[in-house]
Amino acid sequence: MTESHETAVHAEHDHKPHGWRRWVFATNHKDIGTMYLIFSGLMFFLGGAAAMGIRAQLFKSGLELFDPAEFNQLLTMHALMMIFGAVMPAWVGLANWMIPLQIGAPDMALPRLNNLSFWILPFAGALLISAFLVPGGAPAGGWTMYPPLMEQFGASFPMVIFAIHLLGISSILGAINVIVTIMNLRAPGMSLLRMPLFVWTWLITAYLLIAVMPVLAGAVTMLLTDHFFGTSFFNAAGGGDPVLFLHVFWFFGHPEVYILILPAFGVISEIIPTFSRKPLFGYEAMVYATASIAFLSFIVWGHHMFTVGMPVAAQLFFMLSTMLIAVPTGVKVFNWTATMWRGSLSFEPPMLFAVAFLFLFTIGGFSGLMLALVPSDYQYHGTYFVVAHFHYVLVPGAIFAIMGAVYYWLPKWSGRMYDMRLAKWHFWLSAIFVNVLFFPQHFLGLAGMPRRIADYAPQFTDWNMVSSIGGFVFGAAQLLFPYIVWQCVRSGKPVGANKPWEGAHGLEWELPSPAPYHSWQEPPSEAVLAHGAEH
Amino acid sequence: MRRKGGRGDRAAERAEEGPGRCARLGKGAGIVSLAAAMAGAVPAFASGWDLLNMPRGVTNVSTRIYSLHMMAFWVCVVLAALVFGVMIWSLLFHRKARGAVPDVTMVHNTKVEIVWTTIPVLILVGMAIPAARLLVRINNNTDSEVSIRVNGFQWGWQYQYLGTNVSIVSKLSQSSDAASMLDSGTNPRSVPHYLLSVDHPLVVPVGEKVRLLITSVDVIHSWWVPDLGVKRSAIPGFINEASFTIDPSKPGVYRGQCADLCGRGHAYMPIVVHAVSPAAFQTWLKQQESAGKQVSTGEPAPPAAST
Amino acid sequence: MSPTDSARSAAPELSARQRRGIRRTTWAVSLLALAVYFGYMIVTFMQMHR
Asked: Does C22 lie at the interface with A, CB-CB under 8 angstroms?
């Protein structure tokens, strides 16, 4: 860091609006990023509360807590809150915080749009949650919203569709901002193939968002007109086809799951080299693998609907294209492994989460490969095997990566170090009990327990109890997370002038910690760029 | 149904599936095999801890699906052992605490990268070939001997034996229904086949190819019996085909559930299939044809409820 | 101090080329999103009236 830059940074330090105006009229990428992360945390705990309700209901055979209709509302809202409220906003929050720091930009390219895309969220979230309060309760058709079932729900049906529209608009605006920023505001010398992988994966994710969120918006709009304006897109009696909704929905839905996981790949690709004290193995291969995964995600949607009676040729096509995804995903896992190989590893909390990601995401990948085989999928489809699979890729996958990212960059954001010992407790409780929670669900699904049922036959009780206990401990362990963050921000030990992680590299570590309110007012020079890339 | 407090005006339990229905068969040739099937079916669910894997099932297809599943499983186990082995090796021996020095020159290696791209492709091809073969085999629904139209509704199944006037409405058995109420006070373990028993099961012959024409009158359901290796969505306005041939040496009772969220009663629409000898099946069918007219005719579903 | 200060203080740093780039990319990506939305609706509508 040059001396002149340091002074410039400090001169700007106090120039920020105070009080509520700072947040309501926020245009600073760091403030907006923080708000996104807080919103995401809130929704994570609300969605988690719904999950605790689900696991309590399923603790044993025989209906104990909720009426089946209420149970279906819980599971629908759990999914919607977690996907659209927790994971996606968390990634946008991290993008806001990190992309400008990592590419040497002064802010996001469209700061006012950024404000809008965040402030849509609390309203959309409130609308979504208030669906519980209207007569008839929240929609109970699953987050997949298949018609005609979805159309049987009363006042909450249009509310949830409107909430999804808002959440979708917010994501699209966020994605536009990310693309425009990355395309136009990179520091001189920061060519595309010098960008950190978190930026790369987010660029690709943003294109996925642009390409599929409008499809979801179209699908739910058609659902709405079917219900209120007499169209028959998905109504067989009027010449439509319910399966058409499935096709449109999953054309959105599969890229959506990569929207949730690609930025995680980026985060893991930042953390593992840092704590291996070694550059990422196969940087270019990682970029191309991410792009291939994104491309393939558009042509595999049929694997969500192998049992709806598609032509055999279509089933074969979707099986083969799905299996193909294993190749670039494998490349990524191998590259991460090779990065650790002959490194000099240490296990601070971000690395612990990254290593757990590596193992557990891979398990989810293997069950995904099994699910790709159509004949086997005829047995797996709609069972707890599928539930286990996607929770393995989303909880120890996406969510562990988000937590790893927070533990990794929190010292950069706050200038303070969190309580490592507590963070390790948080990690070990999470990593152990996430397996107690989800691993038995593989058994349940194989043994024949369908997903989304409010009550089950007694022979499934034993493993469900194990799973529920895992769920309760996992859920309780997450309460440590906001406490650790709060304690760090309030009274953590200042990290001072040194990098908190000796192996860290990249432009963000060329800035002081905490990162100044206005950073990279002048683009970093080639020397700073080169210094940041050095190990 | 199934709200707090239960009903209270429930009449005494009617005959469950099974024994009651058996008795009505009279002195058919199939009574022996049916009774044997009943007896054999009861201890099928003992403890939950040993429910770990997919059932092998009783059709050629279900057995082949099981083999494919196990093949894929072992491939994954071997790959996992290799990949996790390397990771664990690094975690143990390449630690800073052990004084490991990072090899910072290791940034990429084209040869290795080609190898770990090619080998997975070959493994995948090896898995795709048997899967594709089996897929084509499963979707061959021709040459069936018995055709049954399956009609899903909220919440139960209606079965229409094509070419006859026999039609069965199959709903959750009353003992399960009563025990499933909130605060019913009944231990589900005391109810035989809780949530997996129906009032009128589907009866099919063993050794003959049975073709199902599956549809729905309201929302999307999914007809699934793991032991038969059949799962197909029931979609309103469209008809899906599926077929199975039960091993002639394996008459018995096979149970399944709806596999697609279909509303409030999704957990409460089980499927029970009685597989009997062809002779017993014919006897049963004739009896149903003559007696069935007043019992249960083709009227399928009650109208969809609003939640 | 105006609440949109951050945007304003950032703006003067941007070159004319960057501003043009931002404008063009924003238009292109926004139109892409709209095209996907209406494209999908139209295709589905045609499918319905096959």
From this structure: yes
Query: Is the model more confident about B16 or about B258?
Result: B258
Look at residue A228 in the predicted model and tell me its pLDDT.
92
Residues of chain A numbered 324-343 and touching chain B (CB < 8 Å): 324, 326-327, 330-331, 333-334, 337-338, 340-343
For A87, the token pair is 């994971």
Residue A165 is assigned to a structural domain of this protein: yes
User: Residue B13 domain-assigned?
Assistant: no
Q: Are B126 and B274 contained in the same domain? A: no
Q: CB-based contacts of A375: which residues, under 8 Å, 6+ apart?
A: B61, B64, B65, B68, B131, B134, B135, B138
Residue B10 lies in a domain: no
Which residues, numbered 155 to 214 in chain B, qualify as contacts with chain A under a Cβ-Cβ cut-off of 8 Å? 179-182, 184, 186-189, 193-196
Q: Which residues of B touch A72 (CB under 8 A)?
A: 261, 263-264, 266
Query: Does residue B256 share a domain with residue B210?
Result: yes
* Domain-located, residue B11: no
C45 interfaces chain A, CB cutoff of 8 Å: yes
Check if the beta carbon of residue B72 is closer than 8 Å to that of residue A370. yes
Q: Please state, in angstroms and rounded to a whole number, the distance separating the CA atoms of residues A398 and A42.
A: 17
**Residue A392: its H or E element:** helix A384-393
Total structural domains within chain B: 2
Residue B158's SS3 state is strand
Interface predicted TM-score (ipTM): 0.91
Domain assignment of residue C28, given as a range: 14-48
**Can you name the residues that pair with A345 across neighbouring β-strands?**
B95
pLDDT of residue A240: 87
Question: Which uninterrupted H or E stretch holds B224?
Answer: strand B221-225
For CA atoms A172, A174, A177, A178, give the dihedral sign: negative
- Identify whether C3 is part of a domain: no
Domain count of the fold of chain C: 1
CB distance A12–C9 less than 8 Å? yes
Domain of residue A42 covers 28-195+506-535
A309, A313, A319, A324: CA torsion to nearest 10 = -150
How confident is the model at residue C2, as a pLDDT?
39
Asked whether residue B182 falls in the same domain as residue B269, the answer is yes
Q: Is A179 within 8 Å of C25 when comparing Cβ atoms?
A: yes
Q: What is the pLDDT of residue C38?
A: 86
Domain tally, chain A: 1
**B150 and B245 part of one domain:** yes
The CATH number for A151's domain is: 1.20.210.10
CATH of the domain at B190: 2.60.40.420
Mean pLDDT of all residues in C31-38? 88
Quick check: is C35 in a domain? yes
| A433 found inside a domain | no
Query: In the prediction, which pLDDT does A527 show?
Result: 85
* Residue B14: inside a domain: no
- Chain B interface, mutation test: which of A344, A355, A461, most B Cβ atoms within 10 Å? A344
Partners of residue A341 in chain B, C-beta under 8 Å: 86, 90, 94, 106
Low-confidence ranges of chain A (pLDDT < 70): 1-15, 535
Residue B40 has pLDDT above 60, yes or no: no
Angle, CA of A188, A190 and A191, to the nearest 5°: 115
The whole-angstrom separation of Cα A63 and Cα A35 is: 40
The answer to whether residues B152 and B168 belong to one domain is yes
A64 touching B (Cβ < 8 Å): yes
Among A13, A20, A27, the strongest candidate for a mutation testing the C interface, having the largest count of C CBs within 10 A, is A27
Q: Same domain, yes or no, for B148 and B274?
A: yes
Establish if B295 touches chain A: CB-CB under 8 angstroms. Answer: no
Listed range (A24-28, A59-63, B205-209, B297-301) with the worst mean pLDDT: B297-301
Whether B51 sits inside 8 A of A444 (CB atoms) is yes
Q: Is the pLDDT of residue C50 over 70?
A: no
Residue B74's domain comprises 60-98+106-138
